[in-house]
Design brief:
Blueprint (H helix, E strand, L loop, with lengths): L1 H6 L4 E7 L6 H9 L2 E9 L2 H13 L7 E5 L15 E2 L8 E2 L6 E2 L1
Parallel strand pairs: 1-2, 1-4, 2-3
Antiparallel strand pairs: 5-6
Length: 107
Amino acid sequence: MLAKIVTTGKRRLRSVYDPTCGSGSLLLRVAREVDEVGDFYGQEINRTTYNLARMNMILNGVHYRNFDLRQEDTLERPQHEGMRFEAVVANPPFSAHWSTNKGLPNK
């Protein structure tokens, strides 16, 4: 549903960003809703999942020059800070253990 919302009325997106990209499935779902996405951006803390996201991009026909995925903690070290994107999507990290003391997940 989120992919449909951010693409309503659009046939092309210049860029799409997912700060919690996981395996990249939401980024790829956005791409299926439009004719073209220029560039994909994402960040994932888990190394295995980050590598899976990069592999998924390539297996789904996204050229490596058209995606910039980073393996890092988005909350503590955002890698695309200051950049602007035409669409931003994210699924909440349901598996994170949240702390009310610091406002960040416990590790």
